[in-house]
Design a protein that fits this description.
Layout: H1 6-19, E1 31-42, E2 45-52, E3 64-65, E4 68-69, H2 78-90, E5 97-102, E6 106-107, E7 113-122, E8 137-142, H3 143-147, E9 153-158, E10 162-169, E11 172-174, H4 176-193, E12 201-202
Parallel strand pairs: 1-7, 9-12
Antiparallel strand pairs: 1-2, 1-4, 2-3, 2-8, 5-7, 6-7, 9-10, 10-11
Length: 209
């Protein structure tokens, strides 16, 4: 049976991640970065927290993304990097973040980064306080809204098999590596909830050009 409560759902997501063989290693010519995919219990179930970066950023300005960045010398590993960056960008203490597991690493198309995402559960009492120099807009997406068709979902197709997903929010569109990471989460969620994964609407409007 599908998980009946938020805590059971988080446990099921953690168990599913443990059972998957995800790609985590470094890739030649790529700079590894750690990002979190935060899930926070909200009034409409689990919400994914995302950010829109300010226009003043040197890299990936105005993009909708997940909190994260490059390792610093004090970071023990990429999970530590992702948790530190999440605290810097969203004011969420690592003590309030429960790592559920590593997801498959995704390369960016417009830079040399390789994003290593970690799914984390945010404590119910914790509230994100975005850093104005790092975050222009905090986006909260109830996961069930996606499966109810309330989140526009498009994809650019390259041939008949490869596709690049796009998710549209009021603050902007998520595309590229971040969208592939969100897609991973949604497929994972669909699996543990026993839900069909919606098909994206084909589009030739490419937001990254």
């Amino acid at each position: 049976m599908p998980p009946a409560s938020t805590s059971e759902l988080l446990d099921a997501l953690e168990e599913r991640l443990r059972s998957l063989a995800v790609r985590r290693g470094p890739v030649a010519g790529r700079v590894s970065a750690g990002v979190t995919v935060p899930l926070h219990p909200g009034s409409r179930g689990l919400e994914v927290l995302m950010i829109k970066r300010p226009g003043t950023m040197r890299h990936h300005a105005r993009e909708v993304a997940f909190p994260g960045g490059r390792p610093e010398p004090q970071d023990e590993d990429l999970l530590a990097t992702a948790l530190r960056e999440t605290q810097e960008e969203l004011g969420l203490s690592p003590a309030d973040l429960r790592p559920l597991g590593a997801m498959t690493a995704v390369p960016t198309a417009t830079s040399t980064y390789l994003l290593h995402p970690f799914l984390v559960a945010v404590a119910p009492h914790a509230e994100a306080v975005p850093h104005p120099g790092e975050v222009d807009v905090l986006i909260r997406m109830p996961v069930e809204d996606f499966f109810a068709g309330r989140v526009p979902y498009r994809a650019v197709y390259f041939g008949t098999v490869v596709r690049s997903p796009i998710f549209d929010f009021d603050a902007g569109s998520m595309y590229g590596a971040s969208a592939h990471i969100l897609n991973q989460l949604l497929e994972l969620y669909a699996g543990v909830r026993g839900l069909p994964m919606p098909e994206p609407v084909a589009t030739d409007v490419i937001p990254w050009q």
